[in-house]
Amino acid sequence: MRAFSNPVPDEKVSRLILKHYFRDLSEAVNSDVIVVGAGPSGLVCAFTLADEGYRVTVLDRRLAPGGGIWGGAMGFNKVVLQKDVVGILEESGIPFEEDEDALVVSAPLFASKLIARASAHPRVKLLNLVTAVDLHVTGERVTGVVVNQSAIEMEGLHVDPMVLRALAVLDATGHEAVLVTLYSRRTGLSLVRESFMNAERGEEDVVANTRMVAPGLFVAGMAANNVAGGCRMGPIFGGMLLSGKKAAYLIDEYLKGVAKEVSG
Question: 175 a known binding residue?
Fold first, then answer.
């Protein structure tokens, strides 16, 4: 007796993967917002904006999205959050344990739940193994990103990239602040770079430093501290979640302003 009544032959597997992936990629060529970096701040920003009706493309250069969550601290796969973000955990279905006036969560579960909430959203396209290599600029506004396959970039092959367009772009690339660094090389924008580790101060810094750095270009998460000189904070992630929420609010306000300009 066969185990499967509806077997799927190899050629159909290939055809369906190509059909559905390139459908998503084609739709991602034009979106409202591009989020580069699928760590906690980028993912929270993405699904928050999607909940408001925006079409969001999330790009991550790695095989596994989730940023620096997975390993916890030194490979001990627990992370800590402030009680202030309990609402975000609850609405994302992330279980937690309250201990010593803080929240402790499983790092793999925390990462996977955030990824699932973003990637399952009908207005979000999440593309991993895609690297942002440059910015697209129209006049004074950042209007998209230039991308290539991560494997091509890692091998240093001379293969031309493609452009994905959007009305706003978020740099959530972590310590490297990839997009803002690219922008600063062309414009002379001053970057302070991150300071020493101090979790309590760094968690405040990451929210305060979340901002628009140029028309259409926003920064959140550890990238924001790398741009403005905030402290590192280690395996505590409440600031990342609030940074993503703040970035979504700022982008929403910016896009409403752009819409008024167009209609006016």
Answer: yes
How far the first Cα of the chain sits from its last, in Å, is 69
Judged against a pLDDT cut of 80, whether residue 264 lies above it is answered with no
Q: In this predicted structure, what is the pLDDT of residue 263?
A: 78
User: With 90 as the cut, is the pLDDT of residue 190 above it?
Assistant: no
Q: How many domains is the chain built from?
A: 1
The answer on whether 93 is annotated among ligand-binding residues is: no
| 238 in a known ligand binding site | no
Residue 136 annotated in ligand binding:
no
DSSP string, 19-64: HHHHHHHHHHTEEEEEEE--SHHHHHHHHHHHHTT--EEEEESSSS
Cβ pair 198, 232 in contact under 8 A: yes
20 annotated to bind ligand: no
Q: Is 152 a domain residue?
A: yes
Range of the domain at 177: 31-67+111-263
222 assigned to a ligand binding site: yes
The response to whether 240 counts as a known ligand-binding position is no
Q: Answer whether residue 190 is part of any domain.
A: yes
CATH number assigned to the domain comprising residue 128: 3.50.50.60
Residue 121 lies in a domain: yes
| pLDDT tens-digit series, residues 213-232 | 999 999 999 999 999 999 99
Report whether 68 belongs to an annotated binding site.
yes
- Residue 100 inside a domain? The answer is no
